[in-house]
Each structure stands twice: as C-alpha cells, then as structure tokens.
Design goal:
Layout (H helix, E strand, L loop, with lengths): L3 H17 L14 H12 L1 H23 L5 H20 L22 H19 L14 E6 L15 H6 L4 E4 L13 E5 L6 H12 L3 E5 L25 H7 L2 E2 L6 E5 L5 E5 L4 E2 L5 E4 L4 E6 L2 E6 L27 H8 L14 H26 L24
Parallel strand pairs: 1-2, 1-3, 3-4, 4-11
Antiparallel strand pairs: 5-8, 6-7, 9-10, 10-11
Length: 418
C-alpha cells in the first residue's frame, strides 16, 4: 500500500511524457491527485505517519524517473509546482475520514460520513484547488512582442507560406517566428539589396543564378545575418507530382556556395534521428548530413550538424538539414504551435535564437527509449524499497483489513449470587 501511490502516479504520467518527449514534473501533476483517495485509505489503515511516508515516496519515484530519463535535474519551477500539488493532495486525503464501522459485513460499511462535515468540505475544496493549480502551472503561450520587430526575409522552396492546394497559410514555424519578427517572403537574393531586412532565413531554395549568388554573398558580407538550411537529401513529404515546379529541390543547390565560405557537406545519413546539441537542446532531423574541413573563418558545432562562418562583416549559420523545420518533426499538435509544452524538439527556439530572438528554453528531453525504460524500472524499484522501509515502521499486525471490526468474544451471563 505504501508503494502503490508512487507507482500509480508515475505510470499515469507517462502518456504525457511520451506525447512530446519532454521530461517535466508538471506532467505528473494531474496524476498526483490520485494521492487524495489513496492517502485517505492509508490514513484509515496505517495512520497519519504512513500518509506522509507514501507522499514522500511518490515525490522520490517521480523525480528519480525524471532525472534518470533526461540525465538532468528538472527545472526549479516545475519541481515547485509538482511538490505543491503533492503536498496539497496529501493534506486533502489525510483530512477525509474513512468509512464508519458497522459490524463485520463489508456491505454494511457506511461511506457517507467520509464526505460529511466541515473538515471534509475543506479537504474537498483543497483537492479541487490542486486541480485548478494544474491549469495555472502550464507553460504560457508565446505572445507577440509589442512595438517594432526586426524584419526577417525568408527565401525558401519549401511550403512555408502556402499549402499544396494553393491556399495561402503560414507553416507552424512561420507562425512562431511572426511573434518575434516582421516576416517577409522574398523571391530572390537580388531583392535583399533594396530591402530593410538584416536577417535572412534561407531554407532549401530553388536554383540561383550567378548574379543571385553574388548578391547573396554581398548582402551577408555587409553585416547581414543568415540562417541557411542546406539539405543534401530532402525528405519533406508532399503530394505534388514529381517535376512539379512547386516542389522544393530534392538536394541542396548551395553546396558550392557553402564550400566557398569554408565548409564542406558530407553525405547524408538515412533515417530520422534526434540530434542533441552540446547545450542539451534537441533537434529532430531526417536524412541529415554534416560538415567537414572547416576553414579558419568557420567553426563546426552541434555535433557536426551546424557550421558558423564569418562572411565579411556578417555571419552565416549553416545547418545540414532542412526537414527539421517540418512541423511533423517538432510539434505534437499542428494547431497549437505557440504552446511550448506541445513541442517535441527545440527547433523553434533554435531557429529564433540563431536569428537573435529569444524563446522559452530549458526543456529536458528523453535521451532514448532504452534510457526511459531503465529509468522507469529504477524508479519503481526505488518506490518498492521505500515502501518496504515504511512497512517496517507503520505495519500494524492487529489492524483488521478494509475497516472490518474483529468479532468480540461472547460474554457469559452472571449467575445468581455472583
């Protein structure tokens, strides 16, 4: 019984973790409300001390799983929210009374007094307040910055501003970027010269002429900042037929320009992969490549996926994959791109950060499926050991199960004169 609350809360919170891969103790806040009924039963059978013992065990089980899954200590704010809900649920459960004893038959138990009286009403109100706290604890939506925003030019052959049926619509990554930038689609690098944009997102563009390549190099050299997604094997799923001019290039056409700046693209690796950067952020890539042979003006980072090059007075950050901005690789719910708790990768934060804007960061991620399985095993084992220690402290051998009263011995009638 002492180990059951922790195991239940842990297992009921796993679907939230598996939906996005984010390791956040706030994902276990709603399951932590299971402590209300279990605490009431444990208090009835084992006493007040056992209730708090099981609550501490629940905290240990969940936080140990969170740490072992991400190999990082969970953030302070998510921890405080989770601890507050566990504390409130434990207090609420300990305030409920158990069923009244009425003989030795289970069907005779009267549960009504468990929810009657001022004490029980306070406990019920506390339990409901923890449910409200779960709503307030969720990470806020990304809101647009007031005032003037930096202008961002976007040149891409990908369907970022339209759908395959020809309807104009922003892709989720553009929806997020509009909260920090004044986004403007541009057809050609030749238009950058007369534009006001100092920032550029260049994602798997069509073939450029020599004049356009020269204009691109000149624009970056005059203090421009560019994020370039150059994919040697694009796997962006589209229903358009092969040969349709609306389809983006299947291979990057910027290989010569990238090599001119100082790095060389390597052959791509097959399959989808969660790529961890050096700072703990994760990008989900598909058939991604890497870089080799960096010149003095370039440096390779991000485990070989990203190259940073100085081009004159400007900078060019080159990523060897363009599929990573496909919302199917970084978003669990395409209709809610502005809610960071729906992200499955740090792609929006990475893209905005390279371009000079700040988005919520600090998320912890599941390292791998095997790591998650082992973390759950060790967390449950921790709960079992904690329950075993508590059993030695709180077990009452003579306590009848399920609140049933023990039969009393028959009393002998006194005889006359006794």
């Amino acid at each position: 019984m002492l180990g059951l609350p922790g195991v239940l809360v842990l297992l009921c919170g796993l679907p939230v973790l598996l939906r996005t891969g984010q390791v956040d103790p706030r994902g276990w806040m709603v399951p932590a409300l299971l402590l209300v009924p279990t605490a009431a039963l444990i208090r009835r059978w084992l006493g007040e001390g056992a209730v708090w013992w099981s609550g501490l065990g629940t905290i240990g089980v969940v936080l140990s799983c969170a740490f072992l899954t991400a190999w990082q200590v969970p953030g302070l704010v998510p921890n405080l929210w989770f601890l507050a809900v566990v504390l409130a649920a434990t207090v609420a459960g300990s305030m409920f009374r158990g069923p009244a004893k009425a003989g030795t038959q289970l069907r005779s138990l009267n549960w009504a007094p468990a929810f009657a009286g001022a004490r029980q009403m306070v406990a019920l109100g506390l339990a409901l307040s923890t449910l409200v706290a779960c709503w307030f604890a969720s990470e806020p939506r990304i809101e647009g910055l007031p005032g003037k925003r930096p202008q961002l030019a976007v040149i891409s052959g990908l369907p970022l501003f339209w759908r395959e049926n020809g309807v104009k619509a922003d892709a989720p990554i553009i929806t997020v970027l509009r909260q920090r930038f004044d986004v403007e689609p541009v057809d050609s690098p030749l238009a950058l010269k007369n534009g006001r944009a100092k920032l550029l997102l260049l994602a798997q563009p069509r073939a450029f002429s020599m004049d356009e390549l020269v204009a691109l190099d000149a624009w970056i050299g005059k203090a421009g900042k560019a994020l370039i997604l150059a994919d040697p094997e694009l796997r962006w799923p589209m229903d358009l037929p092969l040969g349709d001019r609306r389809r983006p290039p299947a291979v990057t056409l910027l290989g010569a320009m990238v090599e001119y700046w100082g790095v060389k693209l390597l052959p791509p690796e097959a399959g989808e992969k969660r790529h961890f950067l050096g700072d703990g952020r994760v990008l989900t890539v598909y058939a991604a490549s890497g870089f080799d042979k960096a010149e003095p003006d370039c440096r390779i980072g991000g485990g070989g996926l990203v190259a940073h090059c100085m081009v004159g007075k400007g900078t060019a950050t080159i990523v060897a994959d363009a599929d990573l901005i496909d919302d199917r690789l970084w978003l669990a719910d395409p209709a809610r791109p502005l809610e960071p708790d729906r992200w499955t990768a740090d792609t929006p934060q990475f893209v905005a950060g390279v371009l000079g804007a700040k988005l919520p960061d600090g998320r912890r991620w599941v390292r791998s499926g095997d790591v998650l399985v082992n973390a759950v095993r060790w967390a449950i084992l921790t709960g079992i050991l904690w329950a075993g220690l508590g059993t030695a402290l709180f077990w009452r051998r003579k306590k009848p199960p399920l609140g049933l009263s023990s039969p009393r011995p028959a009393l002998m009638k006194p005889k006359n004169g006794d």
